[in-house]
Amino acid sequence: MEESGERIIQVYIEDEMKSSYLDYAMSVVVGRALPSVRDGMKPVHRRILYAMREAGLTHNRPYKKSATVVGDVLGKYHPHGDTAVYDALVRMVQDFSLRYPLVDGQGNFGSIDGDAAAAYRYTEVRLTEIAEEMLTDIEKDTVDWVPNFDGRLKEPTVLPSKFPNLIVNGSSGIAVGMATNIPPHNLGEVIDALCALIDNPDLNAKDLMEYIPGPDLPTGGIIVGKQGAREAYLTGKGKIVIRAKVRFETTGNRTSIVVTEIPYQVNKATLIERIAHDVREKRVDGIASLRDESDRNGIRIVMELKRDAQKEVVLNQLFKHTQLRTSFGIILLTLVNRIPRVLNLEELLEEFVAHRKMIVERRTKFELKQAEERAHIVEGLRIAVENIDEVVSIIKGSKDPETAKKKLMKRFGFSEIQAKAILDMRLQRLTSLEREKLQAEYLELIKLIAKLKAILESEVMIKNVIKEELHEMKSRFADPRRTVILEEEEQELETEDLIAEEDMVVTLTHRGYIKRLPLDAYRRQHKGGKGSVGVQTSEEDFASSLFIGGTHDQILFFTTQGRCYSLKVHEIPEAGRLSKGKSISNLFPIDSKERVSCIVPIKSFGPSQSLVLATRAGIVKRLSLNAFSNLRRSGIIAARLPESDSLVEVKLLSGDADILLASAKGLGVRFKHSQLREMGRNAYGVKGIRLTPGDSLLGMVVLKEGETLFLATERGYGKRVDFGLIRPVRRGCKGVKLLNTDKKSGDLVVAMAVSEDDELILISTAGQVIRICADKVSQLGRQARGVKLMSLEVDDTVSDVARVLTEDQS
User: How far apart, in whole angstroms, are the C-alpha atoms of residue 170 and residue 67?
Assistant: First the structure.
């Protein structure tokens, strides 16, 4: 190597890679991926607009092929692939990508469905009127210029831009190790904020949000809450939640969800495909048909609902699982003096004001120089016209133009420029009319020079010029806001929001299997019928409890040992009528020594509500309902019971009501609820009814006006008793007769309150179910046995009865 004269420099490879990669990264950041804070343009967009201006493609001129523009940009300014240039050009045409499109296109430039644009040999373009305002005064030395890639031409480093394109049209780009994502905004709002900032430079980002409440997206939609935009404007980073704009339409007996605006940057065709997929996969339930009725006048996606679907629930499912609800992460990253910086709203607007101040100053200096040069020439022409005879004589007596120019300069003190202008003057300027025009032009130039000098000498006048131009832009191009901004912040969708509100029959078997089944699965029958099978059971198991509750209701499960667990109705597995359900031990950790004795549905927790617990030994206890509002999965102790006793019934108590306790032998005690005071969860309780040997507490009823007592026995006999026939007594006594029990009727199995509008579901230990109207059950005296309600096999008995509440009662 030494003999050949070559020189070798040793370099560590890690140092070379660091240096080379940094150069590459900065080249991508500055020269390709990030926009300038001044004009909001990346180099490719800037070059496209400038090339179109140079080609004369203004808004009032004919369109030209996009291929012409792409060729000019590639050949003169942008030495990259034609695809990159055309893709950038296409995006500037699309009114669903830019809030204020910068290129007016003719032909297929893609669609919101994701359709690709036609090839550039088929489409035509020209500048929009607002884009021309980005290039206005570029010829007046308002911006710096640099050589193009081969040094033949000059290109601008930035555009003069009369409006803040960066924030108005937004921008997105991924550089090396950083990214920008700026949403579009409303031009009128941004200009109002700029004018306010010019008038009061002390305004901060929080103050400016009074003028710019949030982004204004090309596709409209709804921004939920202001917190995300507020955070982005204050810190430079934030996230907004965007929802589609929807409405409900009813045609006949069918309701439809109609989408008229979709979130920004969402592909409509993909959105519809995803909705259809989620409907097939049962993530979204209740949609019968889906069709796209969009046309050139706007978007219209129609989702026709099933007759039994709840529109609010279906809509929540759509928001949860599809792009009808999206989020947009705002990153206000931009190039400031070729350095990437994350700015807040105040800094973004201040940088644009500084940019416009520089443009106005440079333009004013350029116009002042031109005015002074013209005034200098006009002044010479005026002197020449006033001394025209002598000037003509000098010119005639000179042998050539150069000699004439020197004589004029010597005789009248003209400058070389003035002398040359006089020699080039036409004879028509010697008429009296032209002489008057010269005088008027000179006076106008003097005024203009004075005005331009005053602007340059006054910061206030420069600001006024900027404001005047901004107001002009607003009057010409501002339009109403498209995106609605909701004041309320988005609430996280709870599971209940995605589940239809409907009544369910909750069934619990003796061995602890639970399920839910829609109430409509049971058909109404007349009393005395055989009923339908509601649960498939074995000889060792039978249905022990049945309850009606809404899917959004919370159910409290009380075990025989006094422990309480909580589940939502929709959390209970749904199963068919012949299925036994799922073991309750899989839903919460119930002890093997205990079983669920009763379930209580709760629609809401209130301070005036309480629970009354009754045990098999006739002990009662009153607890505040709020003590059960936030149950952990492991449950809580509702009452501490001895091993010899077990919990039989729990009732919800609200307001002033009497309590009735009923025993298996047909005895009952009615007493005022005031005889029970609220106790702690660890207390056992007080005596409610005095039981004879062999008897046990069967049930408990909270009396309400308009209701009667319904009683049913083991062998399917039953009746209704007017509460007025049951006199109030002292808590803890033996009570009065409610029903005569014997071998034919069997012991009492159910005591509950019903109204005449109620429907009742009876279930047997063998799993037979019958549904009857309460008003069909005879109302009899206390001593009567009752009438036959359900025909049973010899070895079958009534297990439980549930009351179906009407809408008014529920």
Answer: 26
d(CA 353, CA 718): 87
Closest listed residue to residue 265, CA positions, set 332, 328, 223: 328
Tokens of 465: 């010029």
Residues with Cβ within 8 Å of 407's Cβ and at least 6 positions away in sequence, in order, are 394, 397, 398
Q: Angle at which helices 401-412 and 345-386 pack, to 10 degrees?
A: 90
Q: Determine whether 24 is an active site residue.
A: no
Element (H, E) at 251: strand 245-251
Q: How does pLDDT run across 176-232, given as a tens digit for each residue?
A: 778 899 999 999 999 999 999 999 999 999 999 999 999 999 999 999 999 999 999
- C-alpha separations of 46 from 93, 521, 553 in Å: 14, 67, 60
In whole angstroms, what is the distance from residue 483 CA to residue 477 CA? Answer: 17
User: ∠ at Cα 443 (437, 445), nearest 5°?
Assistant: 100
Amino acid at 136: T
Can you read off the two tokens belonging to residue 702?
């909270």
Question: Cα dist. 116→112, 167, 293, 297 in Å?
Answer: 10, 26, 21, 20
Q: At CB < 8 A and 24+ separation, what contacts does 530-533 make? A: 530/768, 530/770, 530/791, 531/762, 531/764, 531/768, 531/769, 531/770, 531/771, 531/790, 532/577, 532/768, 532/769, 532/770, 533/577, 533/578, 533/767, 533/768, 533/769
Question: Dmax over Cα atoms in the chain, in whole Å?
Answer: 153
Contact between 503 and 759 (Cβ < 8 Å): no
What pLDDT, in 10s, does the model give residues 488-516? 876 665 555 556 667 778 777 756 788 88
Which residue, among 245, 198, 238, has the nearest Cα to 215 in the 3D structure?
A: 238
Name residue 318's amino acid: L
In angstroms, the CA 80 to CA 85 distance is 8
Residue with tokens 């097939």: 280
Q: Is the whole model's pTM more than 0.85, yes or no?
A: no
Helix axes 345-386, 416-423, angle to 10 degrees: 60
Q: Could you say which DSSP state residue 611 is in?
A: E
What is the Cα–Cα distance from 468 to 329, expressed in whole angstroms? 34
Using 50, 70 and 90 to split pLDDT, how confident is the model at 533? low
Pairing of strands 647-654, 582-583: unpaired
Give the sign of the dihedral formed by CA 11, CA 13, CA 15, CA 18. Answer: positive
Cα separations (Å) of 279 from 266, 274, 276? 19, 9, 5
Which candidate in 24, 77, 120, 122 is catalytic? Answer: 122
Which is it for strands 237-243 and 254-261: parallel, antiparallel or unpaired?
unpaired
- Structural domains in the chain, CATH included, are 41-160 (3.90.199.10), 245-323 (3.30.1360.40), 358-472 (1.10.268.10), 501-804 (2.120.10.90)
H or E element at residue 417: helix 416-423
CA count, 13 A, side-chain hemisphere, 347: 15
How many Cβ atoms sit within 10 Å of the Cβ of residue 681?
16
Could you tell me whether strands 717-722 and 759-764 are parallel, antiparallel, or unpaired per DSSP bridges? Answer: unpaired
Instruction: Give CA–CA dist 506/518, Å, rounded.
Output: 9
String of b and e for 126-141 (b: at least 16 CB within 10 Å)?
A: bbbebbbbbbbbbebe
CB 640: neighbour CB atoms within 10 A? 14
C-alpha 51/C-alpha 57 separation (Å) is 9
687: its two tokens:
């005596």
Q: How many CB atoms lie within 10 A of CB 226?
A: 18
